[in-house]
Design the sequence.
């Protein structure tokens, strides 16, 4: 693996050297590819276009990010920003590379979570959009356009992760392929209309099962905090180490979102029926609401409190998009029509 890692470092150096003037663009792209964006940005857009697509996006995002966490624990992937120093292979010539505010993630590096979740979630979006365009236009060329954009997005997200030294190229490729497969498979079975017990059991099963796996690996002598130690050691700015990038943050986000999806479908089975204009209004209000929910400051100590509140935060997300905002929009627009 040393040769693969070394070539990855030189590739990152070359990419930074050639495209440093586009630094802001790369940082925007890496934020778009953040698994968190699937819950806070892609989900509401997809839901107000197609309820089934929205539920599928949330479902696929949660399962793919959870599986990514498990794979990272099993594969022990390095990250470029710490491997450069730990490998001690660059004594004669150190690579001329920079770190960024999004570089210092604390989980293992393989496979790339950004690439994996992006590939899975956006497959749901582009396949829905492609089918919609074909049903309206019967044009193969026009309906193929979303799939071309899908490939461009995966390449862009992957390159952004290499640019900021968060991943090696092979980790990005592995994440993209795995995410694509998950997107195809999971989007065929969307849990619409399932009872609340299904989502509660699934959410708690993932949470408790993962905690048991973590405890079991520790009992076997596997140090699952090794990546956190290295991230803190080699990150150039201590403030770039954030608890919301830790593995357990991903876990609580996924489990919270799944439970929230079940609650939302329990409160309002089938969702609210809205015409296109009220849907657009609901999307705008939901997006603003989720922006403020995401910005809510959480205490980082004790960590148990942080993770509990992080869980609740993502339980709220489906309530805002599926129940609260469209319900209010329906109430006001329905009254206006009656008047």
Sequence:
């Amino acid at each position: 693996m040393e040769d693969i890692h070394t070539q990855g470092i030189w590739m990152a150096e070359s990419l930074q050297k050639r495209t440093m003037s586009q630094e802001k663009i790369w940082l925007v792209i890496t934020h778009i590819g953040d698994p968190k964006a699937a819950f806070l940005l892609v989900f509401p857009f997809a839901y107000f276009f197609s309820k089934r697509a929205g539920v599928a996006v949330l479902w696929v995002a949660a399962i793919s990010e959870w599986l990514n966490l498990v794979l990272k624990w099993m594969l022990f992937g390095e990250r470029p920003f710490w491997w450069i120093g730990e490998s001690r292979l660059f004594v004669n010539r150190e690579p001329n590379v920079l770190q960024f505010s999004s570089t210092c993630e604390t989980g293992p590096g393989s496979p790339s979570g950004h690439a994996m979740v992006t590939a899975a979630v956006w497959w749901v979006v582009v396949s829905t959009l492609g089918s919609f365009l074909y049903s309206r236009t019967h044009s193969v060329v026009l309906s193929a356009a979303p799939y071309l954009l899908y490939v461009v997005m995966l390449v862009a997200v992957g390159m952004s992760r290499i640019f900021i030294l968060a991943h090696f190229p092979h980790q990005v490729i592995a994440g993209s392929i795995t995410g694509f497969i998950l997107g195809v498979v999971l989007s065929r079975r969307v849990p619409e209309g399932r009872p609340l017990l299904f989502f509660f059991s699934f959410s708690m099963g993932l949470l408790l099962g993962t905690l048991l796996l973590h405890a079991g690996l520790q009992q076997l002598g596997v140090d699952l905090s090794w990546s956190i130690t290295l991230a803190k050691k080699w990150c150039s700015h201590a403030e770039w180490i954030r608890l919301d990038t830790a593995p357990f943050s991903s876990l609580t986000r996924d489990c919270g979102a799944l439970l929230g999806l079940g609650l939302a479908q329990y409160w309002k089975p089938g969702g609210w029926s809205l015409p296109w204009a009220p849907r657009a209004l609901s999307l705008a209000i939901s997006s603003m609401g989720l922006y403020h929910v995401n910005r809510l400051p959480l205490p980082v100590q004790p960590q148990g409190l942080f993770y509990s509140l992080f869980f609740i935060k993502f339980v709220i997300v489906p309530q805002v998009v599926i129940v609260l905002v469209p319900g209010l929009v329906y109430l006001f627009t329905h009254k206006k029509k009656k008047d």
Observations:
- The chain has a mean pLDDT of 94.
- The chain has one domain: 2-332.
- The first helix runs from residue 2 to 19.
- Residues 130 and 305 are 43 Å apart (CA to CA).
